[in-house]
């Protein structure tokens, strides 16, 4: 494999992971960002993103002279062979992806890209973006390639270095092959295709995952009605290799910075071509229903009304192992509880307390027992490992009520029962406290 001169534009979690991992594969990588302060920090090896292994990889890359950080994109691309665009594509009006940043970066680098350089979109972009980008760049000698990422927050470095597959799409075959070659050392199956198909893979995969979760959450609700146990049901389903054991865990609904944005965007794309997609619509509406259903469980635990009740919350991030609150189902359940008049005391090991997204009326405390103190009910919303090993006798002493609502089926009901607490999960029979 030949080491390539790569520029990565944008040092968010996708960009920084891409840059640091490509440097670890032996390439020479320059990461550029508009934020001078961030560039200075990264150049010193200081990484603020909460991603296991990322800071170490950044420092190794810098020490080996293979990774550097610069301000601004135009100066950075001058001798690049491959330029990765890893800039945000937020949800714009009506759910469509907003490509303003992608287009503005393209405008900045258009005239300075070297001949035969390849521009790669790594951000999740609507089908057709590569084509639009090529028109925007208006450079016959520069090819555009779509190379979607499939990284999960909290395991991005691991996912990058151990991919299930590499997807590379371009209408210029040679450019797609050059980008695929960057990953040769990883030995992953590689799908070489056209640009539109590569862009579609990303949406199709994320929307499928969201649909899988909405389906599981609906089956869990049905299990409650029929007296079946979702944990056994999903285990039994998952042994079928066509289904698989992963992504079958019911919860308060799916969230984060990707699945909600991508489901909304694909629906928009479908609407734009008059394609009716009731399956995807139902995936999204079931997810909203799931949050309400969790609120109903807490209301029931409080005896029928939430007004004036003090509720303890364990977890607010959209999943464990991250400090990310974007589109967090836990946060949405918290907001709904607050709207119903509950007083909320929350603990989350990933948060500092100064996050602007935290709803008014919610107090963040730095220990889980404080969150339980004086609460009429305790609600687990994010599956942090530390919550499994709490001293449940201490928790029981702190609570005024007796019920723990476990929206992730994360706790051991038997341990709670022995501590004198009743457990309410999702899709499972409630467990009543030993008296
Ligand atoms: C997701 C995809 O999993 C990645 O493959 C993709 O690259 C990424 O989006 C992206 O587009 O960038 P991520 O947003 O990090 O990754 O989060 P996931 O681990 O997929 O979790 C999404 C949501 O589903 C979370 O709220 C999580 O708690 C929930 N979830 C996940 C469940 O409720 N049950 C499960 O069994 C799994």
From TrEMBL:
Keywords, alphabetical: NAD, Oxidoreductase
Transmembrane annotation, as ranges: none
Record bears the keyword GTP-binding: no
Phylogenetic placement of the source organism: Bacteria, Bacillati, Actinomycetota, Actinomycetes, Pseudonocardiales
The reaction(s) this protein catalyses: UDP-alpha-D-glucose + 2 NAD(+) + H2O = UDP-alpha-D-glucuronate + 2 NADH + 3 H(+)
Organism expressing this protein natively: Saccharopolyspora rhizosphaerae
Residues involved in NAD(+) binding: 33, 38, 89, 124, 153, 261, 326
Gene Ontology MF annotations: NAD binding; UDP-glucose 6-dehydrogenase activity
EC number in record: 1.1.1.22
Origin: domain of life: Bacteria
Keyword Oxidoreductase: yes
InterPro entries: 6-PGluconate_DH-like_C_sf, NAD(P)-bd_dom_sf, UDP-Glc/GDP-Man, UDP-Glc/GDP-Man_DH_C, UDP-Glc/GDP-Man_DH_C_sf, UDP-Glc/GDP-Man_DH_dimer, UDP-Glc/GDP-Man_DH_N, UDPglc_DH_bac
Pathway: Nucleotide-sugar biosynthesis; UDP-alpha-D-glucuronate biosynthesis; UDP-alpha-D-glucuronate from UDP-alpha-D-glucose: step 1/1
Official protein name in the record: UDP-glucose 6-dehydrogenase
Family the UniProt entry places it in: Belongs to the UDP-glucose/GDP-mannose dehydrogenase family.
Domain UDP-glucose/GDP-mannose dehydrogenase C-terminal, first and last residues per copy: 312-413
GO terms under biological process: polysaccharide biosynthetic process; UDP-glucuronate biosynthetic process
Binding-site positions, substrate: 150-153, 202, 247-251, 255, 319
Catalytic residues (UniProt): 258 (nucleophile)
